[in-house]
Predict the 3D structure of the following.
Amino acid sequence: MQTDYDPRAIEAAAQHYWEENQSFRALEDPSREKFYCLSMFPYPSGRLHMGHVRNYTIGDVIARYQRMQGKNVLQPMGWDAFGLPAENAAIKQGIPPSQWTRSNIADMKAQLKQLGFGYDWGRELATCDPDYYRWEQWLFTRLMEKGLAYRARATVNWDPIDQTVLANEQVIDGRGWRSGALVEKREIEQWFVRITDYAQELLDAIDTLDGWPERVRIMQRNWIGRSEGVSMDFAIAGSDQVLGIYTTRPDTLMGVTYVAVAAEHPLAREAATHDPELAIFIEECRQGGTSEAEIETMEKKGYRLGIHAVHPVTGEPVPIFAANFVLMGYGTGAVMAVPAHDQRDWEFAERYGIPKRAVIRSADGAPCGIEQAAFTERGVLFDSGPFDGLTSEQAFDAIADWLAERGKGDKRINFRLRDWGVSRQRYWGCPLPVIKRSNDEVRAETDLPVRLPEDLVVDGSGSPLERMADFYALPNGETRETDTFDTFFESSWYYARYCSADCDTAMLDERARYWLPVDQYVGGIEHAVLHLLYARFFHKLMRDEGLVECDEPFANLLTQGMVVAETWFREDAEGRKHWFNPAEVEAERDDKGRLVRAVLAADGQPVTFGGVEKMSKSKNNGVDPQALTERYGADTVRLYTMFTSPPDQSLEWNDEGVEGAFRFVRRLWSLAIGEAEAIRSATVPTALDEAARDARREIHTALKKALFDYERHQFNTVVSASMTMVNVLYKLEPSPARAGVLREGVGILLRLLAPIAPHVTHHLWRKLGLGEDILGAGWPRVDEEALKQDAVAYVVQVNGKVRGNVKVPADADKEAIQAAALADEQVGKFIAGKTLRKVVVVPNKLINLVA
RNA sequence: GCCCGGGUGGCGAAACUGGUAGACGCAAGGGACUUAAAAUCCCUCGACCUUGGUCAUGCGGGUUCGAGUCCCGCCCCGGGCACCA
């Protein structure tokens, strides 16, 4: 097969055609059904990586598919342009973050265009553009007016040498990434947005998101973490202070043997003033990270404050501990502890010799056995004074009522979700539109946008804005806030701004009401909670400002899996690993194709397999999409990424697989070009012989499968079905019907593949005289007549095991099928001497004889 | 630690509501074409024994005429955890 398939030329020509015809420009048209398809916009890191290619190919396939269904499709693209990497690059290379970011955007845009994605570039936006961020500043001032934004103290990672706040990412093994200093926890004043006011609505509305993957809905429910419990006050012995705690297990109240407070809790601080060892303990607790994973996995430590809390029911004193696992930022910064019925409390009590008081046992009366571990199940109360004999559920209410009557506590619904801390002590972000008065009061800036000064170089110690009086000092003695927004703030509403990208009088206009909600959102599973929850929240804030009408931003969500690849390394004398790119590694295989040994191509010496990992610089297992596109063309890269795995699973990269995809595109090309004359002059298939009928049946069976798979976004099997079609058409015997079957088959095939491999199908569609523009060609339909068969093959099972195959007329009834099955020689052998007890027939599939 | 996924040939995977396990492709082996190579085309390809069977979807149980699919209990791998995006 000789081909002159030249992806470079036909892809450039197709892209030129789309640009000339403004094929992807989206216009509001209330008479047409709209479809808004959105892929998560990239952070402009400089180069597209395979994760982007996968994400955007999935989005583009869906957008083009919907368009071919006749919908009015909007597919925009933009840039999540603020963020830490720009500052890191600035520190390393001495370039202003703005310059670095904008040049990256230019590079990445060129790469996206090369891949042939059908974006409406007229709506492009970058979040670092003042025309964009002025509107989130405006919304924030509205939130301040409504009391939905407020200031409070919060814990951050503090680098004592660089005198700067560190992101979790910048804390490595408890030390600052640049200074190497031990990181401390520090409380500083921060801005928060009251997402907890919307917690119940955010939770309830999850039930309406039936176009979202169940696992994402579960994660969001867990993240919001609604719990029903009781808040109550413990008096402090010998003081008129009270200590407030919250518990979801008030039924265990009678088993409380101690109370724990955060190291930063006022009670602990106060006790430390006359206990130097406690002061040291509190100081120790300040070291270590602030992330949940770190706090949960670190060694649980405590220190007796020497004061006691009074049990609200028994009046008995219980010791108060300061503990490193209690966080000041959660609830009240204090917890009641029941070692007998909570595993963490149990371990803590073991360590510090605190008594365990069992008060719950299972309903059957068996002892609860707390010697080895806590008994954490619900059950029946004992040794609980007035509450003896109640079930846990009854005791919940009884104890809550008992406390409420005495003014010591109340039932309360709590959420794990905390208010969203939106301020960051960083330069490359959107400035908070806040002005500080001299008396520590604040007011909202009215003159928007507050422009971020660009062309500043950062050096890694603190924010340069704090040293820039031109920015923060105002003539009347007031000062401007130098914090910037969390970059999640920008990414929480960009989907809406695309609709009204050029509107300079408001955040959004009526066009947003035409396009929203997004019909299909596509992005990484790593955003399952944070970004997707913040965006849902932001949408409700905009709704409450009258900017949008619907309640939820994303009707359907597709979370694609990661792109992973093999890793290979060698260890040097010091035990350090050096990673080699899989492209430099050669495999040696045995005659069954099994891997025997792998060597580095450069020196022929062995390398060690390091597992399959997410593509990353640190493991040197990345593949450059641009090099690949230049070598094989965008269609092959797109086809490969769609074919190798279903979208929601991880995709394991394999260079030989790309070769296979390239082979298929060339095979399609040579089939179409080789038969071009026949196809051009053919009409609808007529005068079908048996072979032609079989071929049509196979084509339409594959089409039926492919259409179903498009709908459920399982593109890998759409490609499989296309491959089957090519194989069928290649084997087509000469006959009077041949040209007609070819024309129909290739016509189906090209349209089926058009969303996935748009360039080659665009070219061939025109070349074969099938039409002017395949984008407007409509969608192929299954011919039910072509699927019909005279005889149906049945699998014959005996006791559930396959023993034979029989062919029966399509209209055969159960008796006829059974008779045919029993007539089979093999089946007869297994039935011989037994009596038939039962016969199960699955129509058109199988018959099971139970004997 | 908590939460969420995933384990099917040498490899990526398929199997629509329980109904022929391995479609489609990669790798591998054999053959054709060619002076040769590349490209292309054809055949074989889960394991084990003798046509014909037996075993096989991470492991151990269960439900069913029938289980990759449903239920119970384990093991292993990956992702997220609030200042990475």
Chain A has a mean pLDDT of 91. The longest strand of chain A covers residues 149-159. The CA atoms of residues 14 and 759 of chain A lie 6 Å apart. The two ends of chain A are 55 Å apart (CA to CA).
